[in-house]
Amino acid sequence: MTEVHHIFTDGSKIGNRVGAAFVHYANKQEITKSQYRLADHNTVYMAEVFAIHKAIDYILDHELNDVKIVSDSKSALMTVESLSDNREFLWQIKKRLKDREDIKLMWVRAHKGEMGNERADLLAKKASNGDLIDVHFTYSKVQIRNINNKKLTENWQCRWMQSKNGEWTRLIYPEINMTRLSADFYYNQIITGHGIFGAFQNRMFGKDCKCQCGEDETIKHVLMECPV
Asked: I need a labelling partner for 186 at 20 to 30 A (CA). Which of 11, 89, 213, 219 fits?
C-alpha cells in the first residue's frame, strides 16, 4: 500500500512572540512534529514561510515521495509560487520545489476542523512560548521602512506637541496625520489661523482687529464665541 504523506505547516504570533511548526502525517497517523521559535520582530507571514521551508528540509532529509505540504496561509503559498519574488530565502524553497515535482503545495481553510491543520496551529502557538529563540532572520526592507516611519512619526508628534507655534491648529489636530488634506482656501485659513480674520490682519498689517461685537476677532471667537 502506497503511503500518503501530508505535512501541515503553520505560524503563530501571540503578543510579540513568534512560533512556527510542522507535523507529518502518513496515512492519517501522526509520525513526527517540529517546532521553532522565531525572533520577536518576525511576522506571522515569515513564520508561515519558514514552516514550509523546514517541511521541505524534512522531506528531503527523510527521502519522502509524493508529499503534500498543507498550509492555511494563502499569502505564504502565493509568495512561494510567485515568479517575481527572488529573495534568497524564497529562492531556495522554489529551487527545491522545482527539483521535486512530487512535492505539492495545498491550501486549507483555517479552523475548520482539519485535524492536521489544528495540530500544526497548536504546535506553532506552543513554539512561540519557548524560552530560547531557534531562528534569527534579519529585518526585511518593509520592516526597516516601517520602523523608520514609526520613529519619524513619533519624533514629529513630540515636536508638534512641544512647539510654541500652532496652538490653534493643535486644538483641531492634536495628533499628526500622514493623510494628505485637500487644498481648500477657506478651510486652510481656519486651521492655520492665517487669512481674513481680524487678529491675523492686525498682527501682519496693523489693521483693526475688532469683531462687530467688540471682541478681538480671533478664529476661536468667530467660530465658538461670537453672538453676532
From this structure: 213
Please name which of 29, 30, 35 lies closest in space to residue 12, comparing C-alpha atoms: 35
Record: fold of 5-138: Nucleotidyltransferase; domain 5 (3.30.420)
63-110 confidence digits (pLDDT tens): 999 999 999 999 999 988 876 666 777 888 888 888 898 999 999 999
In whole angstroms, what is the distance from residue 212 CA to residue 76 CA? 66
Q: Where are the domains of the chain?
A: 5-138, 144-225
- Helix (H) / strand (E) element for 18: namely strand 17-26
Residues contacting residue 141 through CB under 8 Å, at least 6 positions apart: none
Q: What is the DSSP letter of 34?
A: E
Grid coordinates representing 187 are 478651510
How confident is the model over 207-216, as pLDDT tens digits? 888 888 888 8
